[in-house]
Amino acid sequence: MEKILDIAEAIAHEKGLQTDQVIESLKTAFIQTAKRVIDRNFAFEAVINDETKTLDVIQIITVVADDDERLQDEEIAPAYISITEAREYDDQVELDDQLQIPHELQEYGRTAASQLHREIEYHIQRLVEDELYNKYQSKIGTLVTGRVTRVDAQNNTYIEVDEVRAVLPMKSRIKGELFVVGDHLKAVVRRVNMDKENGMQIELSRTSPKFLEELLALEVPEIADGAVIVEGSARIPGERAKIALLSTHPQVDAVGATVGVKGVRINAVSQELNGENIDCIEYTSIPELFISRIMAPAIISHVEIVKNEEGEAEKAIITLPADQKSKAIGKSGINIRLASMLSGLNIELVESDSTTNEDGTIEEAKDGVDALEALFN
User: Fold this and answer.
1) N or C, fewer C-beta in 10 Å, the chain?
2) Are residues 376 and 300 in the same domain?
3) Do residues 9 and 115 share a domain?
């Protein structure tokens, strides 16, 4: 074929691919076409001549011994020739030499041309899909924006994101959300699959804790530039979330920066999450103190971390006044569930005989249990 390198460069430019990758795909297309129109048992190679910019299809026949078992195998025998037979054509050949027989696909008429067109189209499409797959595989957990193109009978929402179509399943939508064609929405890439029948499939999510983190990074410059680090997050989508924040700069208040003046930043994120309430918590590496903070608004008397045989923390036993238990549990258990998700520990509540004053101090903790703040002073 004439000027195959020019064709490869044109395809690469149009599809946004690397020229070398396109050339390899074209070689594969030519080899597959030769196998289909000439003989599937032949061994072919596609060789590009850089000077003439042409591609030659060459049949490769390997010289083997007269008693080589491969000569008896009908499927692979055409790729081999006995040394006795080979020397009838060239008395200089040796074992393992490779004889090259050129083939011109043009000589095989319209059948070859049609087959070659299909093969090139198929292999270039696979190359495009592989590039897109790698691109979006690297975007898992990151924020994307797109326009709704369709909502099916199962309320799965199909979204056009740049050059691909992604799907937001109903299970990954925040409760109460409704989308119509033309809406623009944000979501995070949850999963990317490659299916031979359906091609690449991109699944989005608005219920993932990562979605909350990405929205905060978008809204809070201190998180985006690393002055504030999100150590962890937990969500019950559409209802409530807890997020642990750590400042890496002595002059930056992690919680204050995230909340913003009069709550403007956190409210903007909450609005995107369909009114989800977000608790911002200052992270600490002291597990007892961290547990006491994430149990807010409940006031905790004491926290005991229970470890397993390997020395890993697996449960937190929290002692608290009886009048704080309902706050610790939260409506429908939401507070303790989020605290468990954020800490990664099972949480057990134990009531004490102490009570809390109006200023939040604890009186007469059971068995002389001190307030947590005293533990770390």
Assistant:
1) C
2) yes
3) yes
- Please say which residue of 118, 136, 154 terminates a domain: 136
CA angle 12, 16, 18 (to 5 degrees): 55
Same domain, 128 and 70: yes
Mean local confidence (pLDDT), 286-301: 92
Please write the tens of the pLDDT for every residue from 337-352: 999 999 999 999 998 8
Residue 197's domain spans which residues? 141-201
Question: 248 and 148, same structural domain?
Answer: no
Phi/psi at 249 (nearest 5 deg)? -125, 130
End-to-end alpha carbon distance in the chain: 81
pLDDT value for 231: 94
pLDDT tens digits for 168-217? 999 999 988 889 999 999 999 999 988 777 778 899 999 999 999 999 99
- Position 91 pLDDT exceeds 90: no
Return the closest-CA partner of residue 203 out of 211, 283, 54, 184.
211
27: amino acid identity, one letter? K
The rounded percent of the chain whose pLDDT value lies above 90 is: 48
Q: Which amino acid is at 187?
A: A
> Which residues neighbour 327 within 8 Å (Cβ) at sequence distance 6 or greater?
297, 298, 299, 335
pTM attached to this predicted model: 0.73
Indicate which CATH number applies to the domain containing 106: 3.30.1480
- Helix H segments across the chain? 4-15, 19-37, 83-86, 109-137, 209-219, 221-224, 254-259, 264-272, 287-294, 325-329, 334-343, 372-375
Going by pLDDT thresholds of 50, 70 and 90, the confidence category of residue 52 is: confident
CB 299 within 8 A of CB 321: yes
Q: What integer best gives the mean pLDDT of the chain?
A: 86
CA of 272: how far to CAs of 173, 176, 177, 238, 309, in Å?
Answer: 12, 12, 11, 10, 44
Distance separating alpha carbons of residues 38 and 77, to the nearest angstrom: 15
Answer positive or negative: Cα dihedral of 121, 124, 130, 131. negative
CATH code, domain with 294 = 3.30.300.20
